[in-house]
Amino acid sequence: MGISSISYSSSTVYSKASSSNTSSSEIKQLEKQKAELESELQEAQQSKGDEQTKQQKIQQLQIEIQQIESEIQQKKSEKTDQSQNSIQQLKSVNNNTRTKNNNETSNKSNSADSANESTTGNKIDTWA
After folding, report:
1. What gap in Å lies between CA 116 and CA 113, rounded to an integer?
2. Whose C-alpha in 1, 49, 69, 108 is 20 to 30 A from the C-alpha of 33?
3. For the chain, what are the domain ranges?
4. How many Å apart are CA 38 and CA 32, to the nearest integer?
5. Nearest Cα to 71, choosing from 28, 38, 42?
6. InterPro entries, from UniProt (predicted)?
7. How far is Cα 63 from Cα 78, in angstroms, rounded to an integer?
């Protein structure tokens, strides 16, 4: 019974780790998009041509970069929250398992003590 609860908790932690890896790859993808937009922004700032069109392009790129930065921060925050929740779950499972093992050990010890008392009591009765 204890093994099945450990297996369950391990699979839960594994699935959370898997989603954390997905989050990491999403963050990397967003950072890559941000770098590409920053490169485009530099090109737009250095370009020659209609100043109004140039400024519109720069402004649009800056807005997109800010949106991506916001998404990156959100993903990082979610990842941190998931990590903290996983740690709390592991601690809870560990404490529950430890308590259960202590209870089982205590019950076995009490049973053994009762058996010893019975046996000892019988010996005393036999000698008496």
Report:
1. 5
2. 49
3. 37-76
4. 10
5. 28
6. FlxA
7. 23
